[in-house]
Amino acid sequence: MSPGLFLTFEGPEGAGKSTQLARLVARLDQAGVPHVVTREPGGTPLGTRVREVLLDPALSIDALPEFLLYSASRAQLVVNVIRPALARGAVVVCDRYADSSLAYQGAGRGLPAALLQDLTGVVTGGLTPDVTVLLDLDPAVGLERAARRGQPDRLERADLAFHQRVRAGFQALAARDPARFLTLDATRGEDELAELVWATVSAQLH
Ligand code: TYD
Hints:
5-stranded parallel beta sheet, 5 strands, binds thymidine-5'-diphosphate, globular, alpha/beta, about 210 residues, single chain
């Protein structure tokens, strides 16, 4: 059992995860709550290198190696960053985590859910988030928002049907575990969303 609190943000492209994550971190700062902010893929020197490979539009990566690369980044992050922070009693806020693999490599690419779940159990040592904020958005809208930010990365270049399966994958995960997931309509106003996230997170702080 870890004394800290493990929070993740999930959702399809362009749903405003990073904005909401920053809003939450500002509230944690104000409240003086010790916290660590990280992301996937990334968060460690290895993860940062793996991230460059995963997002490189020049590379073609098959579904299984894609999952294994995300898993490599995740395994290092859990051991080096997330578990030590939780053990110190900190709040860990992570931009994407294992649910992204189930949605993107499972629902999106078609890898079997059982395989992904089994391997993810090994990769994370069974560490699951206490709260997952799912920002749900139509991928047609999200991809357009993401496109305004610059050149699309390798995942953003996948077709709309792929991104629709990803969204449905996230929705299915949330429906199966409503105690963990806070699902929010990402078209709601930024302030309103930030309040809803804070209401859930602050209720878990003690
Ligand atoms: P990132 O720039 O972090 O995307 P976003 O800002 O949308 O979160 O890039 C991460 C990409 O990797 C994103 O397209 C989602 C994808 N991804 C997976 O396909 N599987 C995973 O396990 C994770 C963590 C991310």
